[in-house]
Every structure is written in structure tokens, then in C-alpha cells.
Specification:
The chain has 118 residues and is mainly α. It contains four helices and two strands.
Length: 118
């Protein structure tokens, strides 16, 4: 996995790999396939969350974290020469759950709703 280190971000970004389309039918299965190919995304979201909480934030939205990660990827990882950074917004709820699983103390910072689809 080729790393594209951004100086400002403090975490390694990699070329995003997308799972083969059409193989996974549920959102959970699609997320698991993406996460297997791109474990660094969770690490980056974890880094961003820690940074925001350490800066005094009390509440954090996964939508904001996704947009910050997208922006940093585009501005700092320009070496990917046009590599399209695609994060599926359907995966936000799964990433929140993984962050809380890793850091139960962060649970109050996120709003977690009941999953409506699997």
C-alpha cells in the first residue's frame, strides 16, 4: 500500500482502493470490503477525532470528519496524480461504531442512531 504522507495531517494517507462493484449487497458488507482494503481510513478518522477532542470539542460529527479527511487528501496527497478519493457516506455510521469500539470514552462525543439497514 503506497503511503502519501501529508505534512499537516500527522497521519499517513494511502491511495484509496475500491472493492469490486456489485459483489457486496448490504451496506455492512460493502463497508467491510472497503475497510479491509483501506484500514488507514479508520486510523485517520481516529487521529482527527483525537485532535478535535484534545482541542476542546465536546461533540463531533462524522460528516465533518469525512469532509476534513477528503479535503486533506486532496490538498496534501496531490502526489496521487488525480487519484479519486471516494468515501461512501453510507459508511459513516460504521466508522463511528468502530471509533467508539476502540475508544469507549468517546461515545458521548458522537450521536449514534439505530442502524436501519444492514
Amino acid at each position: 500500500m503506497e503511503a502519501v504522507q501529508g505534512e499537516m495531517s500527522g497521519f499517513a494517507m494511502h491511495v484509496v482502493q475500491q472493492p469490486d462493484d456489485g459483489q457486496e449487497f448490504t451496506i455492512q458488507a460493502q463497508f467491510e470490503a472497503f475497510h479491509r482494503l483501506n484500514p488507514w481510513v479508520l486510523d485517520a478518522l481516529e487521529n482527527l477525532t483525537a485532535h478535535f477532542l484534545d482541542s476542546g470539542a465536546r461533540r463531533i460529527g462524522m460528516g465533518m470528519l469525512f469532509e476534513v479527511l477528503r479535503w486533506r487528501y486532496i490538498t496534501e496527497a496531490a502526489a496521487t496524480e488525480g487519484d479519486e478519493f471516494r468515501l461512501n457516506n453510507n459508511h459513516r455510521s460504521r466508522y463511528v461504531r468502530l471509533l467508539i469500539e476502540r475508544h469507549p470514552e468517546w461515545a458521548p462525543a458522537f450521536e449514534v442512531r439505530v442502524l436501519r439497514t444492514r
